[in-house]
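re: ur question from earlier - yeah i can do the single chain one, its not a big deal. heres the input i used so u can compare w yours
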Amino acid sequence: MIKGLSSTSNSTKQKVASLLTVDFETTLRYVDIPIPPFPRSDVDYQSIPERLEAFLVLQWLHDSKEVSGIYKLRVRDSLYLPHTEEVIAQCLKEFNIEVLDWMRVDMSIKPLIETCPLLKRLTLYVSNWATLSYWVSGDGYEELNEFPKVRESPQVDQEWV
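and the output i got, formated as tokens:
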């Protein structure tokens, strides 16, 4: 529920904006976090140690809004400078997530094993045939045993990204 209304005068807008609050349920149905593909032009990307946008949004949801569950989480990560797997694990550890679509190319499943025990559906992105052949091989398929609910109801999407 959104509390507070917008107004046309600037002083009223500023006053109302400071009073504007949004209440969240403890479990959200869908969260979509777009990440800009390139750093802003005024920021030297080599000076950025790692991406933290998704971490900051999810930390805010958990700490400020007391969200503990997300049915479907979609993060359209940057192909140019993506979040590290360690940051992704930190992002996910505070939430119960059932459907994860983190657009991080060639992400390992290992950071997800302890952070997403309730995972039912996982979307993986690959950059080359070697990675794809690993996931469809016995070794890659066996790694999915760590997520029994994913294995119980496998779904194959026919769309290519």
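Residues 22-152 form one domain. not sure if urs matches, ping me
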